[in-house]
Amino acid sequence: MALEFYQLTSIGDRDINQDFMAHILTETYALFVVADGLGGHHAGEKASRFFCHGLLRFADTYSKQIARNSADDCMAGIFSGWITAAVNEMKRLFAIDESGNDAHTTCAILYLDERRVLTAHCGDSRIYRMNPQQILWRTQDHSIPQQLLNDGKISEQEMARHPEQNRLTRSINILKAHEAEINLYPAMQKGETFMLCSDGFWEYVKPAELLQLAAPASGKDELAKLARLAVFRAHGKSDNVTAQWVRRR
Fold first, then answer.
1. Tens digits of per-residue pLDDT, 6-49?
2. Number of C-alpha atoms within 13 angstroms, CB side, residue 3?
3. Cβ atoms 72, 116 nearer than 8 A
4. Cα 195 to the chain's mean position, in Å?
């Protein structure tokens, strides 16, 4: 696929970076993932990394299954199987590390081919779909603030500063079946932009600023500028900041 792609990650003001990102670009499909680990003693750092490695390990198997099936009603099941395989890989990698039971990770996963867009997310790492005029949609967080927003009790702008911002209602963990939300969309159009990011990025970037990343002339420099701005606006309390930017040429 004819895609332009940039990614970045920053430790922010934390001691370690528990975010992890990965991608695959081939002639027939593309896969992107951002994961934000949760857990002490480096458990979160391992959870995000092990999960992403699991997705990559089984990419060939499951991308071929997606390519062979034209029926839309098969896609969610195949994608779910792929995520389950990644969680099982997490279990294998955590087998000699007791911290695995308490390790969690969010995820934001984007799969693209010529016929479709597939997304999967769990927690508060996000995917945005944009064209130069507007943010078409974003994934809905699995969090207490998202529930309050849906109930009309807070605004979109208040989500990032809400005292329960870090309270998730779903996450990826090796002790349970995955709870990722999977959605199927029409194929990516020329000039559209996707953004995948951890909460350390979107918490401090305004929607109008995010839309700048969908402008035709935007790219690597604009992405880096917003990432630096997110760290600056946190006033010494920045979370890890991770983002992937994808555009169809």
1. 999 999 999 999 999 999 999 999 999 999 999 876 899 999 99
2. 24
3. yes
4. 8
The overall pTM is greater than 0.85: yes
Among the listed residues 23, 18, 17, 19, the one whose alpha carbon sits nearest the alpha carbon of residue 4: 23
Q: Rounded CA gap, 144 and 193, in Å?
A: 28
- Strands (E) across the chain are located at 3-10, 19-25, 29-38, 104-105, 107-113, 116-122, 126-131, 134-138, 181-186, 193-197, 241-248
| Full set of structural domains in the chain with CATH | 3-248 (3.60.40.10)
Q: What single DSSP character describes residue 55?
A: H
Summarize pLDDT for 110-134 with one digit per residue, the tens.
Answer: 999 999 999 999 999 999 999 999 9
Identify the CA nearest to 160 among candidates 206, 212, 93, 91: 206
